[in-house]
């Protein structure tokens, strides 16, 4: 499957790319990750947003049922590769009912983490790497529209 952003589009950093949170992939890094993991059906998307908006109020903007990218779309035909595994800031770990699913994956499984803009996506990436996963990239999230255009449909 071809991604919407071409190599030519990634040769210079955009102002959006410069404003990304630390650890969020550049356009070129994400394109390279997707090219190295060409079987897109095998990429797992870890949506670290919290569906309990009283815990993470900012997740409601994009993640509510009325938002542009609902958390409830995880695991549906809209986002078949996505699983919602919220990052718990208190525990400093991925948590929730789907966290055990992660342990069923091989450690070199391609994983893209994301939240709304990349902060918890980065913390999720670091947590997964501590758990032994070796093929993880932080995709930022819906606020990082250039990256979201590349993987948000998975």
UniProtKB/TrEMBL annotation:
Alphabetical list of SUPFAM superfamilies matching this protein: Rhodanese/Cell cycle control phosphatase (SSF52821)
Segments of this protein annotated with the region Disordered: 1-23
Organism this protein belongs to: Bathycoccus prasinos
All copies of domain Rhodanese, residue ranges: 39-145
Skewed-composition ranges (Low complexity): 1-14
InterPro entries named among the record's database cross-references: Rhodanese-like_dom, Rhodanese-like_dom_sf
Protein name (Swiss-Prot/TrEMBL): Rhodanese domain-containing protein
Taxonomic placement: Eukaryota, Viridiplantae, Chlorophyta, Mamiellophyceae, Mamiellales
């Amino acid at each position: 499957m071809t991604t919407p952003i071409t190599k030519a589009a990634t040769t210079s950093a955009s102002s959006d790319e410069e404003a990304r949170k630390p650890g969020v992939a550049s356009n070129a890094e994400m394109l390279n990750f997707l090219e190295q993991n060409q079987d897109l059906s095998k990429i797992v998307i870890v949506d670290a947003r919290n569906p309990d908006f009283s815990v993470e109020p900012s997740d409601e903007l994009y993640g509510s049922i009325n938002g542009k990218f609902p958390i409830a779309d995880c695991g549906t035909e809209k986002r078949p590769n996505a699983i919602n595994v919220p990052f718990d800031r208190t525990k400093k770990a991925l948590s929730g009912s789907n966290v055990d699913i992660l342990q069923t994956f091989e450690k070199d499984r391609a994983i893209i983490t994301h939240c709304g803009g990349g902060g918890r996506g980065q913390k999720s990436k670091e947590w997964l790497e501590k758990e032994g996963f070796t093929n993880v990239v932080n995709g930022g999230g819906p606020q990082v529209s250039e990256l979201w255009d590349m993987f948000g449909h998975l």
